[in-house]
Amino acid sequence: MTMQEYNMLQEEHDDEDFLQRYRMQRIEEMRRQLCRGKRFAQVYELKNGEDFLEALDKEDKSTLVMIHIYEPEVPGCEAMSGSLMCLAQEYPLVKFCSVRSSAISTSSMFRDSALPALLVYKGGDLIGNFVRLTDQLGEDFFAVDIEALLQEYGLLPEKPPSVSTTIRNGAIVQTTQSDDDSDLDID
Description:
Blueprint: H1 3-36, E1 43-46, H2 49-57, E2 64-70, H3 77-90, E3 95-100, H4 108-114, E4 117-122, E5 125-130, H5 134-137, H6 143-152, E6 162-168, E7 171-177
Parallel strand pairs: 1-3, 2-3
Antiparallel strand pairs: 2-4, 4-5, 6-7
Helix pairs in contact: 3-6
Family: Belongs to the phosducin family.
GO cellular component, one term: cytoplasm
Pfam families: Phosducin (PF02114)
């Protein structure tokens, strides 16, 4: 082996080390970004109008807050509740809440004709208002239907990348996955 060949091999090895360090640094950077925002990952039940206002006023101005107004006996409200529980897991930086319309003193006419309703706020401002969602989605719908509707109006942030850990040959390997191949896309 000549000295030139030896130097080239050494440079390739250095490049591999650099790439490995860069990958690990990027993974750590992405982890920090995920942890930066407050994480909710659940649906909060609001008890009254005061809770409703606090859910909006006490959050950071960049936090997206979605409030489902419901009554248990109204068709579609149960499907919306289940859908939001799923979406809360997929969008942990979004604050999902639900409140009975009777708890915030809405009129009986509103209860009969507008539920289920979904209000979307950011910075305390109403940016999305969906009433009687059963007119668009029917009485039995799923999280993907609500997700598609909200994405259509640009009301959902991008999903955070998931970092998975696997074990290969006794070594822990971390990989970053993105869900670019959405089930919502038409191929």
